[in-house]
Write a structure and sequence with these properties.
- The structure is a homodimer of 379-residue chains.
- By secondary structure, the first copy, chain A, is an alpha/beta fold.
- Chain A folds into 2 domains: 245 residues, 3-Layer(aba) Sandwich (Aspartate Aminotransferase, domain 2), CATH 3.40.640; 100 residues, Aspartate Aminotransferase, domain 1, CATH 3.90.1150.10.
- Chain A has 15 helices and 12 strands.
- In chain A, the strands form 3 sheets. A 7-stranded mixed sheet of chain A has the order 2-8-7-6-5-3-4, with helices on both faces. In chain A, strands 9-10-12 form a 3-stranded antiparallel sheet, with helices on one face.
- In chain A, helix 4 runs parallel beside helix 11.
- The first copy, chain A, is globular, with a radius of gyration of 22 Å.
- In chain A, 53% of the residues are buried.
- At the A-B interface, helix 1, helix 3, helix 4, helix 5 and helix 6 of A face helix 1, helix 3, helix 4, helix 5 and helix 6 of B.
Chain lengths: 379, 379
């Protein structure tokens, strides 16, 4: 049987400046590339497994999980296949089908899917809507009170720490305090924060934190991190009745291979970069200012932004597109000529982007490129 | 914060002859190593995603899944995180908590865990026990009749195509015929067969097949394959009510990264090697004969073996261990001197091994090494 050509190359996206926020936190440092070389084969982390992935000593998965627990200030850590799988596992372990959970209005679609797969009802704490889409911690209290009036008690609160649409950072500590008052656990989705900015689960008053290795922790996908507070460890990591060393929600083991070793190899790099978070935010704010100065470009979401993911409304590019022979494709093509990628083909009314990890010179070059495109295309 | 040393190297296992059956089907061919280089970064397969992983065209995940469906003769294919996650998804989609499922006595522990996580009751179709541990297809009929007498109707039959303890190959077609007679779907666990030997799901009369990329399909872990027969596609791949393009059991997308691209890159290699399966079995039988000729070494499981995974009882090594100053460690250490790894440290009463993919010369060298160890250690 003949196979099709799967076009298994990524030169364009690797060799150019990639503005896709989904990609910026997932670039591998050298140490992770070396780990990938060592552990590329199948079950490579399982040579010395005595039945528990989290206890493997060579490579030291056990040591890594200890370090990760300290890094996040949680009582137990497991790797999962991604943030979504972490959310699913927590919901599955602590909720019953038919239960209600509260989620913020900026929640990622995978939060909805994890709840749907668990047959949970979702009640939303709405955001403030256009243009800031801010989630107010007090909104949780309001919705909880409404539910209480109806005699309903949610079994879980979920907060998207930083959302993937607007890059809004929400005050987890404030939501966590409300959660404690009502005696309901809080699951914090840190897919866009863990690995970019400091996460201290106890300060953030989260019972559970989930993170994404491929999104924000410089690891090969798919891998996620699940951090658990002491009181929930036994429930979420319950052992099998038939195979007493195996954890049921993990189906025994989770990430048995290359993604795990890249996450391990990247941890020192991630710890270091998290220390530079304030600089990253400053750089992003400067980038936003440069973009907005051009006119016809407006950042939406909380201002000034507190994260590297920014969403712009760009009426100026939309006007250019209307008169351009390449229509909406012009922006993608003009950027590509300048070695910039990561803005979706055809998109001109708005886009999301990130300059996370770029040097000041690169950020200047990117902003100037947008400026030149505007100048070269009078509306 | 300082990290521990995670010992992220695997020189010993990569540079030596590795007999671990878990590892033999997971070595990457050159094309897969190239793909890993291209797609090592985080969300690397998602550059051109329009919302569905299985429809991504660059790299051509869509084309790959078409090819895989033809290769397995199934109506729909999805990648999952591993065989266990595939089994869990099928059970979750088609069974209800409290349901009963039938599984063979040689089932992998992850079958039990997938059922337990789904709150299903397991009824076992026992194997014949020592020394062959054979699962008789008619055993399914007997157990089904017993259950029917008690008014119980299982919602799923699960068969381990080739088990990981004895390498026993069981006649799926015969079990599938029984399944059809009773109107119950059959899930075939092909973790040790798909990618090593030809799998034709329709001939094997399986409604679902699951395979393991890291175990038997020359891919980086973790990744699995789930093949589905037409009549179950809508149920297992049901779309979300809130996000209509997303599949609930997949939590939207599954393997978003490096393992997927290695599985894709390896498919032509896997298709080719599956064509040589008869040679692999012949080679294994010759190896078993050479081992048994030494005396004090007996293959258990079905004889002659129909798979590369073989389990030996090795009273001779156990006797040597008793008098050896290094006790049970001597075998591991003697093999290591001869550049052979993959037999667990300390194990001498029995072991599992595989010579899958080794050349005739390498197999001879391995058998002769065991022979020399026996000669050099008179009991």
């Amino acid at each position: 049987m003949e196979c099709q050509d799967y076009a298994l190359n990524r030169t364009l996206e690797r060799d150019n400046l990639n503005l896709n926020p989904l990609q910026r936190g997932g670039f591998l440092p050298l140490e992770a590339r070396k780990a990938l070389y060592e552990f590329s084969d199948g079950y490579s982390v399982c040579d010395y497994c005595a039945g528990r992935l989290d206890e493997v000593k060579k490579p030291s998965v056990a040591g890594f999980l200890d370090d990760m627990a300290r890094f996040l200030n949680v009582d137990a850590v497991r790797t999962v296949h991604g943030a979504r799988e972490g959310k699913y596992a927590v919901m599955h372990a602590i909720c019953q089908p038919g239960d209600t959970i509260l989620v913020d209005g900026n929640a990622h679609y995978t939060t909805h899917l994890a709840a749907e797969r668990n047959q949970l009802n979702i009640v939303e704490v709405p955001s403030s809507g256009h243009p800031e889409y801010e989630v107010q911690p007090e909104g949780y209290r309001e919705v909880l009170d409404e539910l209480q009036d109806r005699g309903e008690e949610p079994s879980l609160l979920l907060l998207t720490h930083v959302d993937g649409d607007y890059g809004n950072l929400t005050d987890s500590r404030a939501v966590g305090k409300i959660a404690r008052q009502y005696g309901i656990p809080l699951l914090l989705n840190c897919a866009y924060s863990m690995g970019r900015m400091p996460i201290d689960a106890k300060k953030l008053k989260a019972d559970f934190v989930v993170g994404s290795g491929h999104k924000s922790m410089a690891a090969s996908g798919p891998i996620g991190v699940l951090g658990i507070k002491e009181e929930w460890v036994d429930k979420v990591l319950q052992r099998s009745s038939s195979h007493p060393v195996k954890e049921v929600e993990m189906l025994g083991c989770t990430s048995r291979g290359a993604p795990l070793t890249t996450l391990m190899a990247s941890l020192p790099h991630v710890i270091e970069r998290v220390g530079n978070w304030d600089e990253e935010v400053k750089k992003t704010r400067k980038f936003v200012a440069m973009m907005e100065e051009m006119g016809g470009i407006n950042q939406i979401g909380i201002k000034p932004t507190k994260h590297d993911l920014v969403r712009f409304e760009t009426p100026i590019f939309h006007r250019i597109a209307e008169n351009h022979q390449r229509k909406g494709f012009f922006l993608y093509e003009e950027l590509k000529k300048r070695n910039i990628v990561g803005i979706k083909r055809g998109q001109t009314q708005w886009f999301k982007c990130s300059v996370y990890g770029f040097s000041t010179e690169q950020v200047d070059y990117i902003a100037h490129s947008f400026q030149k495109i505007i100048k070269e295309h009078p509306q």
